[in-house]
Specification:
With 400 residues, the protein is of the alpha+beta class. The chain is built from 14 helices and 20 strands. β13 and β14 form a beta hairpin.
């Protein structure tokens, strides 16, 4: 029987193991953490957004420059297939109001337990506290284990080493040093918040406060959603949707100005009509609260802009396009995911490393990024399945 070694026990690695085992291979999964899929479990605390129900062409557009490379794998294992896989594990799903798809349990632990049980039935062996140290002189894979360094050999290998976000959960971004002959795009934060130089008053009073039903605009793109003010700046779903262009603009220009529409449901003309008269003795805060319906946090943002020099004679325009200067992305350790990774040019169409025949790669360690909304896990599952099947086919072919 052919043997497959999978390095990394996140969603991509476990899916690669399942696919290879179903193809008839003997599969061993190693991971340097004490238990598998820790990042998946943490993601499940927010409901475990598995994928999205939108049409496939629109779905694929969310992968930006990596669309063409990811499309074949996602088409081969599309959202409908991921839903069917989940439900076959005994975890029914539902489509939320935004089109996002979740398991009804709204957490990852039941799904992971059922998945690990399936992998056990398929004969997959999972070894914890095994860290990959690189390739040995004879082509074996060096591993640091609880018993000391060991060298494992297999007919094919799948690397599912993750990115560099949430490093305490396992993906610490250290693996590029183990592939010195491969081109790796620098790992950068994705789906993260941004630093804003708040006043002491706003930081002390409103850190942790949500901004609901807002719209954000940057570089001709507008998204609706929510955000959260933090001591360091701002983060949240609407911010994540614009994170990539904001990050690139800051890298290029040193800062980026995001525009916030605090009342996207009210047209500018109507808001101007409401805000034009201001009764004598009414404070600006009360006027904005009563006439525009702004929350205390939104009022504080308007006042922050006024103190920074925004024109006070057109409050409606300020409320509809409040400028927010972002000076840096939050660190990658605080990001939901990461951008960058193993360059696509290093891989063939089956996700095998051109410089290392028999070694395949998948998941977040590849050079792609996507916003939250189910796109992250979908690509991890799809590329993991593709890499596992390709590794098994390679190993079987080599033995025949």
């Amino acid at each position: 029987m052919t043997s497959i070694l999978v390095i990394g026990a996140g969603p991509a690695g476990l899916m690669a193991a399942e696919a290879a085992a179903e193809a008839g291979a003997s599969v061993t999964v190693v991971d340097h953490m004490s238990s598998p899929a820790r990042k998946l479990l943490i993601a499940g605390r927010g409901g475990l957004n598995l994928t999205h129900s939108e049409p496939i062409e629109r779905f694929l557009d969310h992968y930006g420059p990596a669309r063409a490379r990811l499309a074949p794998f996602i088409r081969a294992f599309p959202p409908a297939a991921l839903v069917a896989w989940c439900e076959a594990l005994g975890e029914p799903t539902f489509v939320g109001s935004s089109g996002r798809i979740f398991p009804r349990a709204m957490k990852a632990s039941p799904l992971l337990r059922a998945w690990l049980a399936r992998l056990t039935l398929l004969g997959v062996t999972l070894k914890a506290r095994h860290r990959w140290l690189g390739f040995g002189a004879d082509g074996g894979l060096r591993l640091a284990t609880p018993e000391g360094e060991a060298v494992l050999r297999s007919d094919a290998t799948v690397l599912a080493l993750g990115g560099a976000s949430w490093p305490r959960l396992g993906s610490d971004g250290a693996w590029p040093a183990l592939l010195p002959d491969c081109d790796v795009a620098p790992l950068r934060p994705a789906n993260m918040g941004f630093v804003v130089d708040w006043s002491g008053h706003l930081r002390a009073r409103f850190a942790g406060t949500p901004l609901k039903r807002i719209a954000l605009a940057f570089e001709e793109r507008t998204v609706r959603g929510e955000a959260v003010l933090t001591e360091q700046g701002i983060e949240g779903g609407a911010i994540y949707a614009l994170a990539a262009p904001l990050r690139e603009a800051i890298a290029r220009d040193g800062a980026a100005v995001l525009r916030i529409d605090l009342r996207p449901d009210i047209p500018l003309a109507e808001l101007s009509r409401r805000l034009a008269p201001r009764a004598r003795g009414v404070t600006l805060s009360n006027h904005l609260r009563r006439a525009a319906g702004l929350s205390p946090a939104a009022v504080a943002l308007v006042q922050e802009s006024l103190h920074a020099g925004a024109a006070a004679d057109d409050l409606a325009t300020l409320v509809k396009a409040l400028p927010l200067r972002l000076t840096a992305p939050f660190p990658i350790a605080r990001a939901i995911s990461s951008a960058g990774g193993l360059a696509w040019a290093e891989l063939d169409e089956a996700l095998m490393l051109r410089r290392h025949p028999g070694v395949f790669a998948c998941g977040e360690m590849l050079d792609w990024e996507a916003p939250t909304g189910g796109y992250l896990l979908q690509a991890c599952f799809a590329t993991g399945r593709a890499a596992g099947r390709a590794a098994a086919a390679y190993a079987i072919s080599a033995q025949s």
